[in-house]
Amino acid sequence: MTNPAQPFRPHDLASDDQTARRRAALYSGSPYERQYSYARAVAIGRHLWMSGTTGYDYPNDRLIAGAGPQTTQIFDNARRVMAQAGFDLRHVVRVRIHIADPADYDAVMDVYAQTFRGIDPACTTVQAGLFDPEIRVEIDMDAVLDDLA
Q1: Complete edge-to-edge strand list for the sheet that includes strand 23-26
Q2: pLDDT tens digit sequence for 12-42
Q3: Residue 27 CB: number of other CB atoms within 10 A?
């Protein structure tokens, strides 16, 4: 969902100077985006920056259980938001993964590896205290539209 005050269309990612500078805020439907005044992602020209995303199933308003399934849900959420601006996961160049419990590392990284095999973005994984003990993982990403993807 783009900001209704600034409608966004994928052709706005064209390379001319005027559209290359256009900023589009993209939303997932999470109530927290409006409550705390942030976008799930921001696209400017051929670049996209995605906020930290957790394993919430927003249409059903529930947190998926378990680190692996949450990671799968995160990538599903990311695909939907990126598609609003003509991006998808093959355009991801940088991933930052925050894992609450180091014991979940393999479950998270197995889903990550399956998702990004052949894309191989730069990746950093850290242990971090997350604000809700049921949230096992949070991931943010950067993407670039390029001729290689």
Answers
A1: 23-26, 41-44, 47-53, 137-144, 92-99, 122-127
A2: 444 455 545 688 999 988 888 889 989 999 9
A3: 17
Q: By mean pLDDT, which of 64-68, 81-85, 133-137, 145-149 is the weakest?
A: 145-149
Q: Which CATH superfamily is domain 10-144 in?
A: RutC-like (3.30.1330.40)
CB 43 within 8 A of CB 26: yes
Is the distance from CB of 112 to CB of 95 less than 8 angstroms? yes
Can you give the residue ranges of every domain in the chain?
Answer: 10-144
pTM of full prediction above 0.90? no
Which residues of 75-149 form beta strands (DSSP E)? 92-99, 122-127, 137-144
Measured between its terminal Cα atoms, the distance across the chain in Å is 24
